[in-house]
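Need residues for this backbone.
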């Protein structure tokens, strides 16, 4: 239902009408009503003092309820069915019901209405011209008010009165009253009485809202100053009297009971900085500009603290005195950090050439300068992994790489790093499973000298080394639960602390994690934090095992042959077809890592140009070839089940079975139903 007083067609109250006169319908169908008699007896006029008293006594919390109850009292006295106090949003021609009362069974008004669109004639009369409107029956509205007449009928209004209430030269609110059960004559003396009632209401509401806004503003200022440890102060340049907030007094080591002067403040400041202070005070006085100065305060323990003060001249209107007003904050931590940074810059500068050379060697060892498709494979399954890598690499999103041991998860991490904007810096790798529990925290976050027994020097952590680059956390499931909490903080806030240091360091690091475990199961078993799992699992990539990408075995074999051939100074030109078939039919529980080890052993024993696998002992193939009698449907069912097992029952999304099979999820669901395959999520 729509708001309507604004939706009432209306005619202005003319000054020429007698003060105590009665309105008559153009057709004479509306008779004198009980409201006429009630108003003539003056009950509303008698209610106004008591309503005013209630409004004045109401607390801020009670005011809304008191206004609604007073509105109820008036409408019940006038035997009207509903009424509302409506706020006008001048800038957008919208109105909003702020306070309303309805008799039992009366239809509710919409809380928000665009008055100019729904009832343009009423909007023109009430808001733009500020005219009071009284309408009894739809025929009392002019013919041009087409939309207004329709709204009048739609809302079932028999009689309506709308009084615009102005504040600051514009219509601020509208007081609306309706009769919906039967037409009612509203005499003119009622209008100024209701107008006064509306002004009482909006004056109290606006005063409450202004005081509340002021209180909120003041509270925010106080909170901002307190959170920033900012102290406010004023210095009377005529008398030298120094006024300050408790935070500012604490900065200068004064109690709140002390009377402080400029001389007292200077006595707390390092004598070497006195001239700096006085010069800036004089500069502010003579030039009228804002000044800022950093200086030292002598602590009771003899150490210096650094403060920064910023101030500007203002004239006190009451006393005509010149006041320097400003703020002061403690910047000791910043100054200490700047000192440490200068020392570190000197250290870094001396090691730059050495680090650059080491970087070149490490990049070569890690193979970061090889082609984009390095060692990942050409099978459809690995091509889908390649596509995921291309999608996520240009972003800074966290990646979680899942897969069995030896599938090449680190190679995937390297490929992501190579294609990222961080590729100019070396990717830093941490094997969480190989680090002792007692040392993993210091390895990740670094330590200060003396942080614990045996910490004889400061050590930069992997996060610090990887600043501006990528940090690869291999075997993330092996990380102790206590360290997981600190890793979560880095992912959430981007900050960390060295062991033994309270200083927060910024971590501009992209995280790639990998594991061969089912992290969801680890979470359920309480061995891995749920919140950390959600933070890491932003973009999962599942690396399929080698047995599910047989097409890659030949390519990987020849790559390893080339790698070891260069190292050993040997050239292999051929591999027997029977030997390659043995490699392709083996199940490879150790995946790519096992294949690499097998080829390395064969290269050692080979004496000619043909790779000798005769001495290679492989278990019988675990993965048997489909029998000739197997139907296409059986082959399809077997393949889909294997894919579902690899994805742990995941159908949709990145790394899901639908993506690996190259199908739409809806198509895959249809195939599952047809083939009677049940989904068993891990």
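Answer:
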């Amino acid at each position: 239902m729509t708001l309507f007083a604004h939706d009432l067609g209306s005619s202005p109250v003319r000054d020429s009408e007698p003060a105590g006169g009665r309105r008559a319908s153009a057709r004479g169908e509306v008779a004198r009503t009980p409201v006429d008699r009630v108003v003539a007896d003056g009950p509303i006029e008698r209610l106004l003092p008591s309503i005013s008293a209630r409004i004045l006594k109401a607390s801020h919390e009670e005011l809304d309820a008191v206004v609604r109850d007073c509105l109820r009292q008036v409408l019940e006295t006038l035997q009207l069915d509903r009424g509302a106090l409506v706020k006008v949003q001048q800038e957008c021609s919208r109105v909003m019901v702020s306070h309303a009362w309805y008799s039992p069974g009366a239809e509710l008004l919409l809380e928000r209405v665009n008055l100019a669109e729904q009832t343009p004639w009423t909007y023109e009369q009430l808001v733009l011209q500020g005219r009071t409107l009284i309408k009894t029956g739809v025929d009392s509205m002019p013919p041009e008010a087409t939309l207004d007449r329709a709204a009048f009928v739609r809302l079932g209004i028999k009689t309506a009165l709308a009084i615009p209430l102005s504040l600051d030269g514009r219509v601020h609110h509208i007081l609306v009253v309706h009769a919906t059960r039967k037409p009612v004559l509203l005499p003119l003396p009622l209008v100024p009485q209701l107008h006064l009632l509306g002004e009482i209401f909006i004056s109290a509401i606006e005063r409450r809202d202004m005081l509340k806004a002021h209180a909120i503003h003041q509270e925010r200022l106080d909170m901002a100053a307190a959170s920033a440890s900012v102290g406010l102060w004023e210095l009377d340049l005529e008398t030298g009297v120094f006024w300050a907030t408790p935070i500012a007094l604490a900065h200068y080591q004064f109690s709140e009971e002390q009377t402080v002067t400029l001389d007292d403040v200077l006595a707390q400041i390092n004598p070497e900085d006195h001239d700096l202070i006085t010069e800036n005070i004089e500069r502010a006085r003579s030039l009228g500009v804002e000044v800022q100065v950093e200086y030292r305060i002598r602590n009771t323990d003899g150490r210096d603290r650094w403060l920064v003060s910023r101030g500007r001249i203002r004239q006190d209107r009451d006393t005509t005195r010149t006041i320097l007003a400003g703020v002061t904050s403690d910047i000791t931590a910043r100054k200490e950090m700047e000192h440490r940074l200068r020392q570190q810059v000197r250290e870094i500068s001396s090691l730059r050439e050495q680090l650059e050379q080491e970087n070149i060697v490490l990049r070569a060892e890690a193979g970061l300068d090889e082609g984009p498709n390095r060692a990942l494979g050409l099978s459809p399954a690995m091509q889908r992994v390649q596509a995921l890598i291309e999608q996520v690499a240009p972003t800074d999103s966290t990646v979680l790489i899942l897969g069995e041991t030896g599938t090449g998860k680190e190679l995937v991490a390297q490929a992501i790093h190579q294609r990222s904007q961080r590729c100019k810096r070396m990717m830093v790798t941490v094997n969480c499973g190989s680090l002792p529990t007692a040392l993993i925290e210091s390895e990740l976050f670094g330590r200060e000298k003396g942080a614990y027994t045996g910490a004889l020097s400061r050590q930069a952590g992997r996060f610090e080394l990887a600043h501006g680059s990528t940090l690869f956390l291999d075997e993330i499931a092996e990380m102790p639960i206590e360290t997981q909490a600190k890793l979560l903080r880095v992912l959430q806030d981007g900050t960390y602390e060295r062991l033994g240091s309270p200083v927060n360091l910024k971590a501009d690091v992209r995280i790639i994690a990998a594991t061969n475990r089912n992290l969801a199961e680890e979470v359920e078993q309480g061995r891995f934090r749920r919140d950390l799992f959600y933070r890491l699992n932003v973009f999962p990539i599942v690396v399929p095992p080698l047995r599910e990408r047989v097409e890659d075995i030949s390519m990987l074999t020849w790559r390893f042959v080339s790698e070891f051939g260069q190292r050993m100074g040997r050239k292999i030109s051929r591999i027997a077809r029977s030997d390659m078939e043995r490699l392709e039919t083996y199940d490879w529980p150790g995946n790519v890592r096992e294949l690499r080890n097998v080829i390395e052993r064969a290269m050692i024993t080979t004496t000619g140009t043909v790779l000798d696998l005769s001495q290679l002992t492989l278990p019988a193939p675990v993965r048997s070839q489909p029998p000739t009698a197997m139907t296409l449907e059986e082959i399809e069912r077997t393949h889909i089940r294997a894919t579902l097992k690899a994805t742990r029952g995941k159908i949709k999304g990145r790394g899901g079975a639908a993506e690996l099979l190259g199908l739409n999820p809806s198509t895959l669901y249809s195939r599952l139903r047809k083939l009677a395959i049940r989904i068993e999520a891990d």
